[in-house]
Model the fold of this input.
Amino acid sequence: MLIAAPVPTIGQHSLLVFLLQIAALLLLALLLGRLAQRFNLPAVAGELCAGVILGPSILEPLLPGFSDWLLPQKPDQMHLLDAAGQLGVLLLVGVTGAELKFGLVRRRGLTAARVSIAGLLLPLGLGIGTGYLLPRSFLPSGANPAVFALFLGVAMCVTAIPVIAKTLLDMKLLHRDIGQLILAAGVVDDVVGWFLLSVVSAMATAGLTAGVVTTAILYPIGVVVFAFLIGRPLVGMALRAAGRSESPAPTIATAVVMVLFSAAATQAMHLEAIFGAFVCGVLIGTSGQLDTEKLAPLRTTVLAFLAPLFFATAGLRMDLTALGRPVVLGAAVAVLAVAVFGKFAGAFIGARLSRLNRWEALALGAGMNSRGVVEVIVAMTGLRLGVLNTETYTIIVLVAIVTSLMAPPILRYAMTRAEEVAEAELVLGDKHAGPARTAGRAGTTDPARTTDPAPTPGRAPGGIRVSDQRGDS
Done:
């Protein structure tokens, strides 16, 4: 009987290059991420720039020999880097799903639903229309125009919960009612966005026929139903067993194994692996058996190591030199305008339908417009599936960066004006109430108060107390 020869291990030079790639990308991502935070910018912007610097935009034109040695354009070598990045993004999505606060959605009810639905449908429709109008040169060879248009629509309608939460925390708006409403609407956008991504990914993989479309829609629904009817009790049992140990190691290992198996399951169904990781993360977070303190080391490792590595590898795929061509630059400006208008207008309409004033509606639009992490993941998925080429990938990642940078200043301005309006309405209400009531309410016009002595004064028309700083998350 012949004994099969062992599979050759990775070559010495390939391992050396891989280790240097990881070290260089991570070091530069760390430095630029910290630099971005010093200027009150999202860390993801700096981490993406790490890849841009080492990629075809800067390093390759300046030092082609060194660039070819460090980042050789060999599939086997680049696949090692891609695999490390994919592991990072799967765990990032799993951790994000575990931290979503669905209680916010229940508390904000119809208002969050209106804002989220309008903020989804309008940019989705505009993105699909833009996808059909873009020149065919922006489609990869052999790509289906309909799938490309659908994919661009999904990219335009997503919202980045991690970037929004960090922005609100930095601005001390996280525990105000308007901040909680932004997060609640963002949670709905996140869930629907991952669902739509899995549907479009299945279409891109299997083709665009009536049977494929039906399967692509029914499979994710079946995954969600199965997860919450059968998967959730199993996840709870596994976490409860792991939690008996005083060490966080069993809980972390259990969570990672479940996320990876779930990702593998949806990948085997020709859905996107990220969808399975996200669903499993939600199950972990809603199981009622998770000790969040024990999961903290995993979160730290993901956010400090794996996520920056993924974003740096994402930056490697960008080619900013393509923007030197007028047609690409024009397309980038058009897609950015559509993305910003669609999200702002959608969220604004939803807020106004909920009887919020225009400044509160503007604040919601600013928060929901931030794409950040999620859109980068969507763009990488499209590039991997062959739906996007380098030019369209670069455009979508630029939209993610620009919209994330836009959020803080617009949100800050809108909240300032909203508080001014609320305070003016309070003062006007006191004048109409007469001297006695005014005297009884002396000293209560501070817009940062944490109590509300009367049920109606001090509230904006839609019932959002813009001055409330109580933590109800």
Summary: Residues 382 and 388 are 5 Å apart (CA to CA). The two ends are 65 Å apart (CA to CA).
